Request: fold
Amino acid sequence: MIPFQIDTLGQPEHHSPLALSIADGDGVANFVSEETRVLFEHFVHTNRPSDTRSLELAGPRQNIFFQPQQCRAAVVTCGGLCPGINNVIRSIFIELHHNYGVQEVLGIRQGYLGLDPAHGEPPKKITSEFIEVIHTLGGTVLGSSRGPRSPEVMVDFLQSQQIDMLFCIGGDGTQRGAHAIAQEVNRRGEKIAVVGVPKTIDNDIPYVYRSFGYATALEKAAEVIRAAHVEAKGAINGVGLVKLMGRDAGFIAAGATLASQEVNFVLVPEIDFSLTGFLAALEKRLHARKHAVIVVSEGTGQHLLEKATEQDLSGNRRYADIGLFLKQKILAHFASKDFSVNVKYLDPSYLIRSVPANSADRILSDQLARHAVHAAMAGKTNMLVGHWNNEFVHVPIPAVVSEKKILDLEGQLWRSTQLATGQPRWPPAKIKG
Amino acid sequence: MIPFQIDTLGQPEHHSPLALSIADGDGVANFVSEETRVLFEHFVHTNRPSDTRSLELAGPRQNIFFQPQQCRAAVVTCGGLCPGINNVIRSIFIELHHNYGVQEVLGIRQGYLGLDPAHGEPPKKITSEFIEVIHTLGGTVLGSSRGPRSPEVMVDFLQSQQIDMLFCIGGDGTQRGAHAIAQEVNRRGEKIAVVGVPKTIDNDIPYVYRSFGYATALEKAAEVIRAAHVEAKGAINGVGLVKLMGRDAGFIAAGATLASQEVNFVLVPEIDFSLTGFLAALEKRLHARKHAVIVVSEGTGQHLLEKATEQDLSGNRRYADIGLFLKQKILAHFASKDFSVNVKYLDPSYLIRSVPANSADRILSDQLARHAVHAAMAGKTNMLVGHWNNEFVHVPIPAVVSEKKILDLEGQLWRSTQLATGQPRWPPAKIKG
Amino acid sequence: MIPFQIDTLGQPEHHSPLALSIADGDGVANFVSEETRVLFEHFVHTNRPSDTRSLELAGPRQNIFFQPQQCRAAVVTCGGLCPGINNVIRSIFIELHHNYGVQEVLGIRQGYLGLDPAHGEPPKKITSEFIEVIHTLGGTVLGSSRGPRSPEVMVDFLQSQQIDMLFCIGGDGTQRGAHAIAQEVNRRGEKIAVVGVPKTIDNDIPYVYRSFGYATALEKAAEVIRAAHVEAKGAINGVGLVKLMGRDAGFIAAGATLASQEVNFVLVPEIDFSLTGFLAALEKRLHARKHAVIVVSEGTGQHLLEKATEQDLSGNRRYADIGLFLKQKILAHFASKDFSVNVKYLDPSYLIRSVPANSADRILSDQLARHAVHAAMAGKTNMLVGHWNNEFVHVPIPAVVSEKKILDLEGQLWRSTQLATGQPRWPPAKIKG
Amino acid sequence: MIPFQIDTLGQPEHHSPLALSIADGDGVANFVSEETRVLFEHFVHTNRPSDTRSLELAGPRQNIFFQPQQCRAAVVTCGGLCPGINNVIRSIFIELHHNYGVQEVLGIRQGYLGLDPAHGEPPKKITSEFIEVIHTLGGTVLGSSRGPRSPEVMVDFLQSQQIDMLFCIGGDGTQRGAHAIAQEVNRRGEKIAVVGVPKTIDNDIPYVYRSFGYATALEKAAEVIRAAHVEAKGAINGVGLVKLMGRDAGFIAAGATLASQEVNFVLVPEIDFSLTGFLAALEKRLHARKHAVIVVSEGTGQHLLEKATEQDLSGNRRYADIGLFLKQKILAHFASKDFSVNVKYLDPSYLIRSVPANSADRILSDQLARHAVHAAMAGKTNMLVGHWNNEFVHVPIPAVVSEKKILDLEGQLWRSTQLATGQPRWPPAKIKG
Reply:
């Protein structure tokens, strides 16, 4: 079996209308062929063989499956907000309409709910006027919702609307939904391309080195950490405590820590930290330096909290609030020592994800969107556009939704946060999982 | 009795070293004389007489009380953080040192605590290198603390350090402390000028039209409201709920509402709102428009919460959390109606006050600081620098600390927020106080 | 004659639909009466009488001239861009439509050109959807143009479109145009209210203490000065030279200087500086401190440049480039002294005016817009909304366009820039004008 | 010969003081071994063999060459400013001092000039206080200069100061200087590690996928393009023309174009565009859409300008101003057609490089700095820290300075800009070089 093989709707027999070249050396940007693939692993080892698997390279194909002039496309955005969603919508439309010549692009309203005509609002026709300034706005102009809908109902709707390609912007729940749609489409023998654009503020989707919105989230998170540091230094024995998004993975906390360089303790879901050890280390720090900054991911230390059994509509567990928990524990600890501390708690919550995308995320959103269009035009389906080794690649959705990306506690990023914070390992060094 | 009369240490007999003029028409900026004052009221009424009281105009005097070369000055920053404190410190130093030629300026550490040598850290000599970049930083490089200290102890310290002028940057608690110091100085027959620079993120100090930091706080608060609006629109029946600073006065909430133009309900401490009426109005709004944005000042609706009896070290009452309270009430209300809503709660807390000052606040901080120096140099004492009718003025501290400035519910600012939100009055229109 | 008397279209006989009060003490925001006016001068002098002239207070009147339901309004934006124009358009529409109930609001395209159907594009109907996000955007969504059009043609068009009130957002050229329209309307005995909203990035309109966009411009200008300072300090004998907008008035240069606190020389149109003296002072500065920052308004030192005779379409003189001139003179001066300097020239040009409005300008734009609507509704005409002594006022257009506001070289603002820069007066202290 | 082999000073015989691990699976971040390398090429081809060269992986080694306690290190910053330089300085110090325990770190002033005691200022000892807030500041706190100095003189100075390791932050000129120093050190048989940190605002250094400062530059550049677009749309036949940095490579122009999505023409040094063709295309665009945005790199179209023979002190050619040239050509072209256009020219110049680093660049700066320290500690020399395939790597300086990275006109980035702008190829499609 070829690993990471991409499903296709059939033979691409139409010529792409894009003004690109296939010749090297003519100074004209090239179409992408299937002959070049992207290595999954970029390391080579002197003491063991490398992983030689490779991923399909994304990009415009010279031959495409659909006749653009007769295509109808649809875009849907699901789940939580993320800086860049509107940029993805806009670039999908522009690439479809202005570059390929697709005449009809529908915006599905309110996530998958909008594919269920009994419950959702009808789609909106996307126009040049509609998308004109949306790249400067946070959120999603199409609305969103959480939770799955019946694949049968959704494919019925796609067929009734004569949709040829559906772009699903969302996280792992959304991509599972996209997969179910693609399977149902396939079962019916239809020719509807289902292409995912990965969206996760937590940066925890596999085969996506950096997801769109993450860079913007770090920018805002670092701003909040800066405020926490200023507060900590402005008070006597000031403790700035910042809770950041990150349900299962600490990428936001780790990245914002590196961006800030003012964090003394960074607590992420991947570590199984000892509260006693942490408080002792904090006490030592305050005695020595009279202020401290702590960053904690929302999903951290769930073993310390009473088990939360709730789930939200996407099936994500709802977490008890580790930030308020830590605040109370810190206050109680130092009260018991008769040591006066000033805890300043900052919880930016949605602020880091509802803002417009920064420049890096605008670029990334645009690229993911246009590569999604190229993929759909070529008849690729049941796949999403990943970003690996600085290349845009095609990844089968099943490979993506089978796992979550988490911090490698022995890898470069976490090592860097350890060197940047100087935080100790809290004995016993019990490792999670 | 002359209203708003300013205490002085004695006859100003020295010539100012500033290169200003007293002649009109020579194109050189002028010293300020005592002959021009600023009207307290800027209205004239056809049907009743105007208030003719006036305030002393701030600015550099041609004759000054102190010999700059032999002066020792000190600066202290107290209470909560506010964008612009470092700008005030920096401009006080620059005006004292570079323009007047004062050789010694001490930075008192950790607020009034630093004037109590038994408990605080010793002062730090302020230098050009120390202040070089602090105007770009939030917080206070001198540290801060809350709560009063003994005037006797503090004046002992000032005398031991041969301080001639003390600049007290802080809110009403701080200014009460400054007043106590000035009285103790006066009782001892000393010649130490005590000059206040008003600091309040809440913009609630009388005779100060706009306090430094307020403009920056609005900038950040409006950014958070924008995020709340984006979240509200991105979810089905989304409710963006934002809690903002404002213990006794709703200036931040009202100002940020005007800056945002996306707020549907603004709840401030000055109004005595009906929870039932509010929830009914919110329900109506959601039915009609499917999303809503609510802004609430932290001090709002304390009558609805269990009485909080705690006080912080400055003697400020600690408030129970109206934001979380409202969130719960909204959720409960709509749950009881079987109407699904998505409440997104944003509490920027310290974020709006720990950031660097924006341009408007940097200008204001600089002006307040330099006018404080001019006042101290002229031998003014027991006063602070106010900002009234776009002029900088001298105000006796007792006049300032005798009351708090609150929103006039019948005035222009509140009227504007009402027109911008379209929020109803909740019957019965019970007026607070 | 009553000074500053405002023209009206007739007796206001309709009741305002706004839910305001006329009673004091009922906790409900109040309508504004004609009985309270705003003093022009806020000073009182012990040695001479004060100016007792006063301006009409702006605000919603209980009785209005137009029946809102039957009104047709139009908005036009002219001249150069300014942060906040879209905010004014949006708030005019919202106040007209949502608060007063006006059904038809037209957006005139491309400035006064759009009032000339032979040459301009037809107007666009403004809707809630059209204005939804424009408050987050720089520029003007209606387009703009420069230069006058025939009042007869424009009034013909207003009549043909059955416009009852025209809001003219623009600078002195625009207001002169508004005045011509109002006169032509009056000549014809029509009842069309012509209300101006003053727009000037240079902050040089009389009776407008701070014009919208100015605060934002200072924010951006100060950012550029910061960059210039960083460049100056990063090189050997670095000179950061920044040219800022300001054709006839140095308010941007002066304000940005205060906001920056890193400027050593600020050169504005109001001063008649000596190049020789300036270069000598710069040389002294570089010897002493090894870097310098210079800010120059574009209209400065025109006597030094070859006479520019061009005019742009608004009739504004086109200026030769003082920034490049100074750069060359500085380089030549130090080359002649064999003293190596690194001049870093920054000309942000349009960058400071094309950005979205900051919080302060969003508030101001909203207020000016809504007060313009209140004025038009009350039948006021041939006037604009000013901002004086922190109140919104009505000012007759002729009073506004008869002069430009310039820096008072002997007043507080310029004095402050002198104290902040420490720049010398260059002998001979020849005063302009 | 092993490609990309790194020079070392000798056997690393000391144990690293860093609290890292060599075991997998213990949950502790790991030291880096020499056994894992980073592939140079990440593609695999079905029709031809891949490049199998690999680069040395950067990171902390378990065994190091220097005894940290007895080390003296020095840092020098050369050439033009770039967002993140201060972040590099700070992280080098923190990693050396706080993590490795190095006691003495000197900051060389004013670039290589500071290594020449006859001409430069003496070095400054870097302390925790000195670097406390510099990560929030643009520029370089150590100063900079351009141009080479004698390697003999510099090595004499390093020996006289007993420097064990020198960190050279700079572009290709600086790295050539570092190479000369390393060679001279080697010739003398000394044990001084010379480690480069690549700095280029233009992102044109080989083996560095994204250089620090580039992301920030894009952020600012995109802001300027946004302003240009707003200006273009605000005027009749408005043309926003933006000149951006980029002497030999168009990465800033291309990246900012993708970030903006509002650019219609992007002109970079790598293309050999036809002025006639460009003007024809612009004319077509203006007729169709009535506004246009053009971005041009400063190094573009030098064949069109009179040959500039000047060089700056670093040996870089000084370019004539393509921005002003284009502005004039556009005005002349449309004047000849009697077609009125409004050209708004924006040249942000230094503004994009003198600002503080954004979050992405702060992270990158920190990582490059700490990896440089690890390399020096391990005794690596004559190398710099690169960033390749998302890993930090060691690259021999000679490999880096032998070429410049330029845009691949047939690769993904340029293809993306073509799809985003829709700009034509101007016949004849003459390819540069």
